[in-house]
Design a protein that fits this description.
Blueprint: H1 2-24, E1 28-38, E2 43-46, E3 49-52, E4 61-63, E5 80-87, E6 92-99
Parallel strand pairs: 3-6, 4-6
Antiparallel strand pairs: 1-2, 1-5, 2-3, 5-6
């Protein structure tokens, strides 16, 4: 019984930490173009910065243009996106990625 309670608390924390980071102001936003995505390592380059997209257990939230949902596998190099992320010691950890319209202004 104790294990189930501890496991439940850990799972709740797993999903709460990214939301808290985004709400607390620790998260930052960046708009740019996807340069590359590696689905095996769940990493990618957006506008020259490396991002970690999280594990399959704790995936990044992806929203496609004109849709309410999406998936990391749907993103392609050349797409314009806004990524919400937190800085870690080694990389930027993506919390969410939203595809933007192709005519949207982004940094270059």
């Amino acid at each position: 019984m104790k294990r189930q309670v501890i496991y439940g608390i850990l799972v709740a924390m797993l999903f709460a930490v990214p939301a808290l980071a985004e709400d607390s102001g620790m998260a930052r936003k960046h708009r740019d173009v996807i340069r590359s995505i590696d689905l095996v390592t769940r990493t990618g380059v957006i506008g020259g910065y490396s991002y970690d997209f999280g594990s399959a257990v704790e995936p990044v939230k992806v929203t496609m243009f004109n849709a309410s949902t999406g998936a990391l596998e749907m993103l392609q190099p050349g797409m314009k996106v806004e990524v919400v992320y937190v800085d870690t010691d080694t990389t930027r950890k993506a919390i969410s990625i939203e595809q933007l319209a192709q005519d949207e202004e982004v940094e270059f």
